[in-house]
Write a sequence for this structure.
């Protein structure tokens, strides 16, 4: 493997505490009841707009209309901008795994469905920014995961063929994008799988930590 493409939320970082706090601050602004962090964890994976819509639906029991959804998104982004990275934490093995991948000569890209205005500060606050040669966010490509475009964009910017890259993620978004792009894919079992167990997904392996993933890529190389 010449490159590793890494998902952010649920793979490198547990960001649910920040996202849940922002979601509940948004609900309070709208005069709506709070929901538990465990519920918000199930809404993570397809970007903040989808998370906001899922949160509203969980509270009201129906899809929100466009005016309410737009207002809710504005309030969520306001709060998340202040909270982003304050309670997020690296999963075990992330730092060692990134170091191991680098020691193999593997180039690293972060490929996320999070917008750049949240991704870059989050990587910086959690001391991850220096690891990545390339960062591909939701607003730097026309389509987000599970479309393969973000992965292919990362490979182009890294100067590697997709067949020489592995996607490391936590959900069907990552698995489907990798298969469509022609990358290998490894999945972690601890992230935000949107209700679909990673054991049920088409992948090349399930790894307990990022360090475990690095051990596999060393064998593949």
């Amino acid at each position: 493997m010449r490159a590793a493409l890494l998902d952010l939320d649920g793979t490198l970082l547990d960001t649910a505490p920040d996202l849940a706090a922002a979601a509940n601050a948004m609900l309070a602004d709208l005069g709506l009841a709070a929901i538990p962090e465990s519920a918000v964890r199930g809404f993570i994976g397809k970007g903040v707009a989808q998370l906001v819509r899922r949160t509203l639906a969980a509270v009201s029991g129906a899809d929100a209309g466009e005016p309410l959804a737009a207002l809710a998104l504005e309030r969520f982004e306001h709060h998340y901008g202040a909270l982003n990275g304050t309670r997020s934490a690296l999963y075990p093995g992330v730092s060692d795994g990134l170091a191991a991948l680098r020691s193999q000569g593997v180039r690293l890209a972060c490929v996320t469905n999070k917008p750049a205005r949240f991704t870059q500060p989050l990587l910086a606050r959690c001391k991850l920014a220096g690891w990545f040669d390339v960062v591909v966010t939701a607003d730097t490509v026309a389509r987000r995961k599970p479309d393969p475009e973000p992965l292919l964009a990362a490979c182009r910017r890294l100067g590697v063929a997709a067949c020489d890259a592995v996607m490391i993620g936590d959900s069907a978004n990552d698995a489907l994008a990798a298969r469509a792009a022609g990358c290998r894919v490894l999945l972690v079992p601890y992230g935000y799988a949107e209700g679909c167990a990673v054991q049920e997904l088409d992948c090349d392996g399930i790894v307990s930590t990022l360090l475990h993933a690095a051990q596999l890529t060393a064998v593949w190389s």
The chain has a mean pLDDT of 95. The two ends are 5 Å apart (CA to CA).
